[in-house]
Every structure is written in C-alpha cells, then in structure tokens.
C-alpha cells in the first residue's frame, strides 16, 4: 500500500514545469524526505500529491486508486486518506475558530454531528499532540506558532489519514517543538502512517526520514 506519483509534471506558469517527470512512492509506515533549495518546486509536489494541484501530466494513486480530479472535486474518501500540514500555521488556520474547533472541523465536514464523539476525538488528539485544556479554547491569534502547528497537526490527523504530507512543517518552530511533533508523527508511523516530508533542513531530514530524495539535484531551479 502506498501513495504514488507517477511521471508527475506540472507547475504554475505555462511552459515552465517545476516538477518534471517525477516518480515518487510513499509506502505505509515509512517517512520519505524530499530535499531541495527554496523555490525549486517542493510545495508544488506536495500539492499535487495531496490532490490540491492538477498535474499537467502523470497521475497520483492513493493505495492504487487514481483520480484525474483535484481539490474539492476529488472524491472525498480519497481526500480523507491524505492529511497535509503546511509551513505557515497562521495562513492555514481559520482565525475565527478555537483550536478545538479547528481540530475537529474536518470531522464535522465529513458529517459527524455527535457532540460526544467530536469531544472525545478532540480530547484524544489534544493529548496526542500535547495541547493543554486552556490552549484548546483559544483562537489562533492567542497562541504561539508552535502551539498552533500542534493544532494543525492534530487537525491533519483527525480523519485518520493513511498518508501525511508535511510541507516545511517545522520551518517556523523551535527545536523542542520540532522534536515533539516529529515524535508524535513517529508514533503514527509505527501504526502504519506513510509520511512525505519536504524540507530544506538537511539535518532534520537525515535524522527523521527513512530515505531522502533530491529530485532537483543537478537542475537549475
Ligand atoms: N500559486 C502560485 N502561482 C504562481 N506561481 C507559483 C505559485 N506557487 C508557486 N509558484 C512558483 O513555482 C515555483 C515553485 O514554488 P514552490 O512553492 O513549489 O517551491 P518550494 O521548493 O516549495 O519553495 P520554498 O522552499 O521557498 O517554499 C516558484 O518559482 C514559485 O514562484
């Protein structure tokens, strides 16, 4: 079982592909690192694999299931198998929601209405990522980047994804928060989560990933 990108090609500007003919496999229970300099196309690759950006050529397969559709047009059961954590938690989080609401919003969006079920899931996820009861009632502007990124990780894990895509997830975090989040994800990997983590932080990738790919090595970005 794996998340696969096959001969992926795409970008944002016509005639200027930043991802070219790329094959990538993220197996369940493994951490695959992708390294590359700023601006080379790492986020674009993550967005393609997360079914958020349409490849110009090639395809993405989630445990063998492919879809030509992206964003909200992609089948919901397929999207729910993919969790994403972005670089900037403040840009990713709705400022009107408390951290608890942020975490369980994907479950509400999937149709869960039972307050008991949502509350129990919020408790379990908060415990897992290390959010205190006091923090859980605050809004994004009332917490630090690290605390907000913990909530964004809990949110990404809430639907029980098979794969987690981390786009420079720790770029704005201090070393102890980075270590804490990597450890939370490590426990999920033990349970079979497949992880793709992109970063320009080579020491982090060397310590965290089972393998590190450098698809842009030798290319000018
Ligand atoms: N929404 C967009 N519209 C137009 N161009 C974009 C968009 N997003 C990215 N690009 C361009 O595509 C190229 C690759 O960007 P991408 O964000 O994938 O790189 P990256 O390797 O993740 O960079 P960084 O490490 O700095 O985050 C860049 O030249 C960027 O300017």
Automatic annotation (TrEMBL):
Keywords assigned: ATP-binding, Nucleotide-binding, Transport
Which organism does this record belong to?
A: Actinomycetospora rhizophila
- What PANTHER family does the entry give? D,D-DIPEPTIDE TRANSPORT ATP-BINDING PROTEIN DDPF-RELATED, TRANSPORT ATP-BINDING PROTEIN
**Similarity-based family:** Belongs to the ABC transporter superfamily.
Where the record annotates domain ABC transporter, the positions are 3-221
Family annotation (Gene3D superfamilies): P-loop containing nucleotide triphosphate hydrolases (3.40.50.300)
Protein's name in the database: ABC transporter ATP-binding protein
PROSITE patterns, per the entry: ABC_TRANSPORTER_2
GO molecular function annotation: ATP binding
Stored Pfam families: ABC_tran
């Amino acid at each position: 079982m794996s998340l696969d990108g096959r001969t992926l090609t795409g970008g944002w500007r016509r005639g200027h592909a930043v991802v070219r003919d790329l094959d990538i496999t993220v197996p369940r229970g493994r951490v695959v690192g992708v390294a590359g300099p700023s601006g080379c196309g790492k986020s674009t690759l993550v967005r393609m694999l997360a079914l958020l950006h349409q490849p110009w050529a090639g395809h993405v397969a989630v445990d063998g299931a492919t879809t030509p559709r992206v964003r909200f047009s992609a089948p919901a059961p397929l999207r729910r198998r993919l969790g994403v954590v972005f670089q900037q938690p403040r840009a990713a989080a709705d400022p009107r929601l408390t951290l608890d609401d942020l975490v369980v919003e994907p479950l509400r969006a999937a149709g869960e209405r039972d307050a008991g079920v949502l509350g129990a899931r919020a408790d379990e996820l908060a415990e897992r990522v290390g959010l205190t009861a006091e923090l859980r009632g605050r809004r994004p502007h009332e917490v630090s980047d690290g605390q907000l990124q913990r909530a964004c990780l809990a949110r990404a894990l809430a639907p029980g994804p098979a794969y987690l895509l981390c786009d420079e997830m720790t770029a704005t975090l201090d070393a102890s928060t980075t270590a804490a989040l990597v450890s939370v994800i490590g426990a999920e990997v033990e349970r079979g989560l497949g992880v793709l983590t992109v970063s320009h932080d080579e020491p982090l990738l060397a310590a965290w990933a089972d393998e590190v790919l450098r698809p842009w090595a030798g290319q000018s970005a």
